[in-house]
């Protein structure tokens, strides 16, 4: 390929790469949350004991924690191949590799990690915060997943409740001459 065609081809390839959906790669807040959740299980500490210190490289974070009677820094790399690698920056011997998966929609990350020192063993699941549109879709999905008789029963109760309120709210005036 000649040089005058190579530059436009490279620009086109770069433009296509940048236009790929971002769902395939989680954002920093989700990656950090996943790192902190795994570290919390690994060291049996509370989440608020971990502090984000900085970012070394793309998806490689430095997180500080008070551990083993001194401040420590842990490196956490969230790899695109489905692994989280955690390594102690001071004692390089401490290293854990934890697999994680993305859900089918590419939004939530899940990992299974437990430590004999820490009693919590349920799955770790990190999802982005719900938007107004997500909440609306969830509400509609919940409404239509119910059986139709249940929907009709709720509608009937709502309507009969309104009828009773209207009947008791204002008594009808008596016709003239009647008491």
Task: Provide structural commentary.
It is a single chain. Helices cover 37% and strands 25% of the residues. With 179 residues, it is of the alpha+beta class. It has two domains: 23-128, no CATH class; 133-166.
* Percentage of residues in helical conformation: 25-40%
The end-to-end distance, rounded to whole angstroms, is 104 Å
Chain-averaged pLDDT: 76
Q: In terms of structural class, how would the helical and strand content be classed?
A: alpha+beta
Tally of extended strands?
7
What ranges have pLDDT less than 50 throughout 5 or more consecutive residues?
2-25
Total domain count: 2
Helices and strands, in order, run as: HHEEEEEEEHH
How much of the sequence lies in strands comes to 15-25%
Main sheet: which strands, in order across?
1-2-3-4-5-6-7
**Oligomer state of the chains in this structure:** single chain
- The geometry reads as elongated
In DSSP terms (H or I, runs of 4 or more residues), the helix count works out at 4
Biggest sheet record: 7 strands, antiparallel
Alpha-carbon Rg, integer: 28 Å
């Amino acid at each position: 390929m000649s040089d005058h065609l190579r530059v436009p081809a490279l620009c086109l390839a770069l433009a296509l790469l940048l236009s790929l959906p971002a769902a395939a790669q989680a954002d920093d807040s989700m990656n950090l949350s996943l790192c902190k959740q795994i570290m919390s299980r690994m060291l049996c500490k509370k989440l608020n004991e971990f502090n984000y210190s900085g970012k070394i490289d793309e998806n490689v974070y430095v997180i500080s924690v008070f551990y083993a009677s001194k401040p420590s820094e842990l490196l956490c790399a969230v790899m695109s191949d489905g692994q989280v690698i955690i390594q102690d920056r001071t004692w390089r011997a401490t290293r854990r590799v934890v697999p994680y998966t993305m859900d089918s929609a590419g939004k939530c990350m899940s990992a299974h990690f437990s430590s004999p020192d820490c009693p919590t063993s349920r799955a770790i699941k990190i999802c982005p915060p719900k938007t107004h549109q997500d909440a609306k879709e969830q509400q509609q999905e919940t409404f239509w997943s119910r059986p139709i008789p249940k929907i009709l029963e709720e509608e009937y109760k709502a309507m009969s409740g309104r009828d009773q309120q209207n009947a008791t709210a204002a008594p009808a005036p008596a016709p003239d001459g009647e008491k």
